[in-house]
Amino acid sequence: MDTKDQHLFEAAVKAQGHAYAPYSGFRVGAALLCEDGTVVTGANVENASYPLGCCAERTAIYAAAAMGHRRFSRLVIVGPGPEPISPCGGCRQVMAEFGDFTVVMTETQGQAQARVMQVSELLPARFTKEDLDGV
Ligand code: THU
User: Fold this and answer.
1) What is the tens place of the pLDDT at every residue in 61-89?
2) pTM over 0.90
């Protein structure tokens, strides 16, 4: 992991500490680097009404979008391991709304190599706003 990712990884681990996961016990953190250099973090937030819980990736992206950010360059995600976290399909779709940035998947135990992929690789043939044009 290069220095830039190390900084984002540390921010994601810190956010993971804020995860609210009393039902699954599965704690996830995310750090999103916006194109202007701002880092916005997120953690999963669960609910007694289970389907209302939100993944770490989405809380980070929605928080950033709500702050006015639209262009992202990197998203580092950290899961409890031992394998790098793999974002769910819903989060892949939410990522794809904001372009084709780099996603770095990691785990907290520090055993596995980070997996680095573009959003377009995580969700090929995705549904985008272009699909809504001209209908
Ligand atoms: N979760 C995330 O926050 N990100 C992922 O990439 C996968 C799953 C959360 C959702 C739920 O709170 C818990 O992990 C178990 O699925």
Assistant:
1) 999 999 999 999 999 999 998 999 999 99
2) yes
Judge if the beta carbon of residue 67 lies within 6 A of ligand 1: no
* pLDDT tens digits for range 45-57: 999 999 999 999 9
What residues does 30 pair with on adjacent strands?
Answer: 42, 77
Report the 10 Å Cβ neighbour count for 17.
Answer: 10
Asked whether 42 and 85 are in contact (CB, 8 A), the reply is no
Q: To test the ligand 1 pocket, which listed residue (88, 92, 103, 108) has its Cβ within 8 A of the most ligand atoms? A: 88
Give me the sign of the Cα torsion angle 49, 60, 88, 124. Answer: positive
Look up residue 107 and give its two tokens: 């785990």
